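Proteins fold reproducibly. Look at a sample protein:
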Amino acid sequence: MKSTKRNTLRIIVAVSSAAVALPLAIGAASGASAATSNETTTMLQGMASEEKLAHDVYTTLGDRYPTSVFDRIASSESQHESALQQLMSLRGIADPNAGLGVGDFASDKWENLYESLVAKGEVSLRAAGGVGVTVEKLDISDLDLALGLKPASDITRVLQNLRSGSTRHLTSFQRVVSGFTR
């Protein structure tokens, strides 16, 4: 009896997974999914660029200052960007950061912001921490705006996780500004 229930459950899970995966695969194969609005596309691409900005700024400042905070958070930002890339891929949305190296961006807006933030952070370790505070506050604000769009549940879940991570990053950079580093 237990084995029959387990097999039935496996069949239900397999059919449910196929029911979700097939439309996503069809939508991805034909370009942007019909259910993906321009607003969602713009939001996901913008958030991906913002996560790349954070990663690249922290990577560059991490090369300058031998504290683990920049390397650790840069790695986390890379994971954030990967989560957004997966969402875009499922929807057939082009990744604006594909093939771009550290400090390279698809738009002048992000490249200019990167250069400005790095220049401010190169003044001192505390200034670099202040740059981190600025980036994380911007990220949290933009994540709140994105969540206000009431996106699909999978997008909402990722954005909430990113916001939680950004809140922790903000706290870490506030410690750098106050002189506490590891």
